[in-house]
From TrEMBL:
This is YceI family protein. It comes from the Bacteria. Residues 38-208 form the Lipid/polyisoprenoid-binding YceI-like domain. InterPro entries: Lipid/polyisoprenoid-bd_YceI (IPR007372), TTHA0802/YceI-like_sf (IPR036761).
Length: 210
């Protein structure tokens, strides 16, 4: 009888050991699958194109992406952030050097981005809602001229080996960042000198796994 009890106890211990080992293995597998990989934004290969419109036409240009990190967990975007160098703002649709320089100087002035006082703009992801096939609805906080507002927009994220590419098109209301120059929302009788409140950002971030 005692021999039977010892055998039963040994069997119970063996079963518990097997279950424990299996549980640990499953947990380890889950931990591996949930591993967070940080992708460092490559400023040289990333780009931001801006478009601003007025009654008489539009202007286009670029702003350099200075830094950023995007975090991937379980093959899905988890969070991230990036910075823009506002001092690098350029105009690409005006070929005359003097006219181009004049507009760039105006964009850097207090009428627009005050780049001397605010040399960077920042975006921080606060929410990620995955959709199908690498598509996401992104919510985050955009800071321009020290003023922060929340934005939500669609984006795509693809990963090829150790390189991540994120793309998004964002519409920004400049007046929310104290950029009111020639805005019909704040000034009357501007006629054809109106500059529309919304401007577009076409962003491509290229990042490398760390």
């Amino acid at each position: 009888m005692k021999l039977f009890q010892h055998a039963a106890s040994f069997a119970s211990i063996a079963v518990i050991a097997v279950i424990t080992a299996f549980t640990v293995q499953v947990k380890n597998t889950e931990d591996i699958n949930k591993k967070v990989t940080a992708f460092q934004v490559d400023g040289k290969n990333s780009k931001l194109l801006w478009t601003a419109r007025k009654v008489t036409g539009q202007h286009e240009g670029t702003i350099n992406v200075s830094s950023g990190t995007l975090n991937i967990e379980s093959n899905s975007l988890r969070d991230g952030s990036f910075k823009l160098d506002t001092r690098s703002i350029s105009v690409t649709d005006i070929t005359d050097k003097e006219t181009n320089a004049k507009l760039v100087g105006h964009l850097k002035s207090d009428d627009f981005f005050s780049t001397e006082k605010y040399p960077s703009a920042d975006f921080v992801i606060t929410g990620v809602k995955p959709q199908a096939n690498g598509h996401y609805d992104i919510t985050g906080k955009l800071t321009i001229k020290g003023i922060t507002n929340s934005l939500t927009f669609p984006a795509t994220v693809t990963i090829d080996k150790n390189i991540l590419t994120a793309k998004a098109k964002i519409k920004v209301d400049r007046t929310k960042y104290d950029i009111k120059f020639r805005s019909k929302s704040y000034f009357e009788n501007l006629g054809d000198k109106v500059i529309y409140d919304d401007f577009d950002l076409d962003i491509t971030l290229v990042a490398n796994a760390q």
